[in-house]
Amino acid sequence: MVVQVQKSTYEAKTQEIAKQLLAATQESKRSFFAQMRDQMRWDDKLLAWAMANPGLRAQLFRFIDTLPALRSKPEIARHMQEYLGDESVELPAALKGMLNFAQADSMPGQVAATTVSTAVETLAHKYIAGETTKQVIKTIERLRKEKMAFTLDLLGEAVITEAEAQSYLNRYLELIEQLTQEAKNWSTVEAIDIADGEALPRVQVSVKLTAFYSQFDPLDAGGKSRTSQRSHSHPITPC
Hints:
By secondary structure, the protein is an all-alpha fold. It has 10 helices and 2 strands; from the N terminus they run αααααααααββα. It has 2 domains: about 40-125, no CATH class; about 135-230, no CATH class. The radius of gyration is 26 Å and the shape is extended.
């Protein structure tokens, strides 16, 4: 009987200690990730830092442009140091600390690569409506529920051939057509669909002339705009 009581007592005590350890571990993890989240709020703070520093802005977005082609964490870490580690780039303390690793394939380097990749993806999803028209429509419907209007464009700034330009045009026309069909099923939201008693277009699409004409010259925007308009006279009516 005495032995059974002792076993029962030890079991209860063991479970109590285990629960305390588990709670402490969970709290530690929560605190760690909470600190990381507060320290590395890239979706807001990084943009503010970048916009305030032309050198950082240029290098940061050059680095982001390379991300889709990078296939491993060491590659990402190495490119981080190459683009952002230059002394001419003024960095916030949190980001500077992340770059303080000796080897790209080291644990600190891989942690930095993971953190940055996640942050960039989060930042991208904040401004990219979706990879497919279905995803875009879902994003738009969520925005409309929050009484927010929108304008869309396709990613990509310039083309180098007329075949690419034609592809962009076709994609824009397809996007406009599909959105216009979907818009017929949207309920009216007075805050964004009506102004001065008149209905507003529910579908807004922004276009870039550089995506529609391979010979667009920023130094002669007026002349090239007229050429582009003559070359691509397809009607684009987003309403």
